[in-house]
Automatic annotation (TrEMBL):
Family annotation (Pfam families): Iso_dh
Biological classification of the source: Bacteria, Bacillati, Cyanobacteriota, Cyanophyceae, Acaryochloridales
Subunit structure: Homodimer.
Species of the source: Pseudocalidococcus azoricus BACA0444
Compartment(s) where it occurs, according to its Swiss-Prot or TrEMBL record: Cytoplasm
Transport keyword on record: no
UniProt pathway: Amino-acid biosynthesis; L-leucine biosynthesis; L-leucine from 3-methyl-2-oxobutanoate: step 3/4
Assigned protein family: Belongs to the isocitrate and isopropylmalate dehydrogenases family. LeuB type 1 subfamily.
Isopropylmalate dehydrogenase-like domain residues: 5-354
PANTHER family (alphabetical): 3-ISOPROPYLMALATE DEHYDROGENASE
Annotated positions for site Important for catalysis: 142, 193
EC id: 1.1.1.85
InterPro entries according to UniProt: IsoCit/isopropylmalate_DH_CS, IsoPropMal-DH-like_dom, Isopropylmalate_DH
Name of the protein in question: 3-isopropylmalate dehydrogenase
Domain of life (superkingdom): Bacteria
Length: 359
């Protein structure tokens, strides 16, 4: 029997609803593969602010560090939007990523045949799309110094963030991206704004330098504005995309809509050692929180990514992914994916449908 310690960060909004589904699914597959999970829940985001005044209490980081993997649902919401920046839920999430050294964020956007009609793009544009966005996660404009709101000599306020990357930061994410592309379609597109930004010029130079070590991977470059356009014009041209923190945030939400709903997209955040964090690409969806309307599949697929990338257990990962395909084959849909002839389910009922397939 192999046992894993998993930290659960349910967070805010729809977080607890979708986390409950993922935990039930993990409990269902575990015995079938000789695994046991030792789950520990910890506070994070708005829930942690309400309980402790801190969006990332030190004990949460300790619990995460002591575990084999971390499952995170989502954080944030209207209630905490006007707090000072250091007390915001989002600051807790950035602290978690930095604190665990999670510099590589893998965000797969794959269109499932069952969901072709759910995409806002034409079926012929999206059918067969299979993209992996490799987003740098602990650098760039999210973390660069100086940052803040400062007063100028004239007494006016000036907001500042700094987009900065060192050579070593670019190289380590670049290597993850080339290795990822090598396991996939052997095509890597690096996205930057090198026509305008010095930080992007260095990014491009370093990625070009790394290419010598990966002659089997075809490397291309796009400016981020063109990349956003190409993603919705002809997404099938992409295999693996590597980009910085902010561009990756934006492009992965755009890629989400190719697949029908942001409620379908999982992600894995990995460092060079220690536990990874596995979380949906979407946020806490405060507009539908507490209404049993959320799509839990991005969360469930994040649990599958945890098994595959964090715990090196491809068997149960595949079983979970297969259960998702089967439920979609049965025509079962949450509201975000609803279409003619489909059966509308709530979040909990979608969870039960997965359990019915798995048990
Ligand atoms: P969001 O992703 O929460 O929601 C955008 C839209 O997508 C909303 O209409 C929402 O209802 C819908 N949606 C999202 N996930 C869904 C799901 N699983 N099922 C059905 N519909 C879903 O983005 P937002 O509204 O810009 O942000 C809301 C809050 O979430 C903010 O506080 C933001 O900072 C936070 N956020 C957190 C994370 C995270 O925890 N990783 C990621 C993004 C945003
Ligand atoms: C994401 C989110 C976060 C980000 C926010 C909530 C800090 O949008 O995980 O995509 O910008 O990275
Ligand atoms: Mn985002």
């Amino acid at each position: 029997m192999t046992s894993y310690r998993i930290t659960l960060l349910a967070g805010d909004g729809i977080g607890p609803e979708i986390m409950a589904v993922a935990v039930a699914v993990l409990k269902a597959v575990a015995p079938q593969f000789g695994l046991t999970f030792d789950f520990t829940s910890a506070l994070m985001g708005g829930a942690a602010i309400d309980a402790t005044g801190d969006p990332l209490p030190p004990e949460t980081l300790v619990t995460c560090r002591q575990s084999d993997a971390v499952l995170l649902a989502a954080i944030g919401g209207y209630k905490w939007d006007n707090l000072p920046r250091h007390l915001r839920p989002e600051t807790g999430l950035l602290g978690l990523r930095a604190g665990l050294g999670l510099f590589a964020n893998l965000r797969p956007a794959q269109i499932l045949p069952q969901l072709i009609d759910a995409s806002s793009l034409k079926p012929e544009i999206v059918s067969g799309v299979d993209i992996m966005v490799v987003r740098e996660l602990t650098g760039g404009i999210y973390f660069g110094q100086p940052k803040g709101i400062f007063s100028t000599a004239s007494g006016e306020k000036r907001g500042v963030n700094t987009m900065a990357y060192t050579e070593s930061e670019i190289d380590r994410i670049g290597r993850v991206a080339f290795e990822t592309a090598r396991q996939r379609g052997k095509k890597l597109c690096s996205v930057d704004k090198a026509n305008v930004l010095e930080v992007s010029q260095l990014w491009r130079d370093r990625i070009n330098g790394l290419a010598q070590d990966y002659p089997d991977v075809e490397l291309s470059h796009l400016y981020v504005d063109n990349a956003a356009m190409q993603l919705v014009r002809a997404p099938k041209q992409f295999d693996t995309i590597v980009t910085g923190n902010l561009f990756g945030d934006i492009l992965s939400d755009a890629a989400a809509m190719l697949t029908g709903s942001i409620g379908m997209l999982p992600s894995a955040s990995l460092g060079s050692a220690g536990p990874g964090v596995f979380e949906p690409v979407h946020g806490s969806a405060p507009d539908i929180a507490g209404q049993n309307k959320a799509n839990p599949l991005a969360m469930v697929l994040s649990a599958a990514m945890m098994l595959r990338y964090g715990l090196h257990q491809p068997g149960p990962a595949q079983a979970i992914e297969q259960a998702v395909f089967t439920v979609l084959d049965q025509g079962k849909r949450t509201r975000d994916l609803m279409g003619p002839g489909m059966t509308l389910l709530g979040c909990q009922e979608m969870g039960q449908a997965l359990l019915d397939v798995l048990n």
